[in-house]
Amino acid sequence: MGENKSNSNILHVWVSPPNTPIPLVKSPLRFAVGTPEGVSSNSWRVWVQGTDIYVSCRDNFREFKVSLHASGVWRVAFTEKAIKNNPLLKTHNGDRVLHRQEPDLTDKTKATIGFQIVILSNGLYLNPDQRKKWPKSVVFVEPPIDEGEMTVVAVVVVPTDSNLVFPEGIRGAVIGKLPLNNKHTVQLVVTHETNATIKPLIAEAYRKSLDFQPPGLPEEAVFLVHGNRPEGTPWISALRVVDVKSIEEKMGQNV
After folding, report:
1. DSSP per residue over 152-219, as a string?
2. Is the link from the previous residue into 17 a cis peptide, with omega within 30 of 0?
3. CA distances from 32 to 75, 88, 135, 219, 239 (A)
4. Tens digits of per-residue pLDDT, 71-130?
5. Residue 205 φ then ψ, to 5°
């Protein structure tokens, strides 16, 4: 593994082989948050098929898939196979789609976020022994520095082939860039942000899930939570049950 970095405002990225240039430009893009020698999140895959963009988790949560279609319909949904195996995953109206939007992509000066993967500092639970089957092409992105931060990986549709530029003081990096149509690109953008607003949402979602959890759920089980940011961007995060309970305790609330 090698480390690819350029200045203090850009996040550290570990690649293999060490001289692999960043951003990656070949589909699929494979990544995880964490370090090669330490703990990490699950790995994720982003790929382009025609002019459609897809996002999915490559170890756990394979039932969960994001589809950003060139037709203008973007969806976050469970797969048909997942619904067949577990009909309880359907939404209250019987749909397998959790989030649907039709973004306006006509503004040639505006980048549009399609989906975000949110990794808290205690959302790193896979050790190297559990990643032996991962392909070497998985890029490791610097995890959160402290408990007050989270690493956010955003799938962004950009109306240009130039890399997105970060404001002064923002620690971020474009780690992947794939071509679409009409000079549009899909860019994989990583930033560090405060988790002050996300943590309470995760804790609340866990409390609401208690009535639906099977009995005897081990604390090492992983809790997957999905929501929307204030601007409407869908996001997903995963933590072990024991870590969700830890968040609750630190917030002065009891599950």
Report:
1. EEEEEEESSSSPP-PPTT--EEEEEEEE-STT-EEEEEEEEEE-TTHHHHHHHHHHHHGGGSPTT--T
2. yes
3. 22, 29, 12, 23, 14
4. 889 998 888 777 777 776 666 666 688 888 999 888 888 999 999 999 998 889 999 999
5. -65, -40
**Phi and psi at residue 14, in whole multiples of 5°?**
-105, 130
Q: Cα separation of 130 and 85, whole Å?
A: 25
Structure tokens at 223: 């809790």
Q: What is the pLDDT of residues 125-159, one digit of tens each?
A: 999 999 999 999 999 999 988 889 999 999 999 99
Q: State the chain's maximal CA–CA distance in angstroms.
A: 53
Q: Which helix or strand (DSSP H or E) is residue 240 part of? A: strand 234-240
The strands making up 234-240's β-sheet, listed across from edge to edge, are 172-179, 185-194, 149-158, 112-120, 234-240, 222-228
**φ and ψ at 224, to 5 degrees?**
-105, 125
Size of the chain, expressed as the number of residues it contains: 255
**Kind of pairing, strands 234-240 and 112-120?**
parallel
Task: Indicate the pTM of the whole model.
Answer: 0.90
Cβ(171)–Cβ(192) under 8 Å? yes
Q: CA Rg, the chain, in Å?
A: 18
Pair of tokens at residue 92: 């209250």
Q: DSSP state, 221?
A: S
Between CA 219 and CA 42, with CA 61 as vertex, the angle to 5 degrees is 75
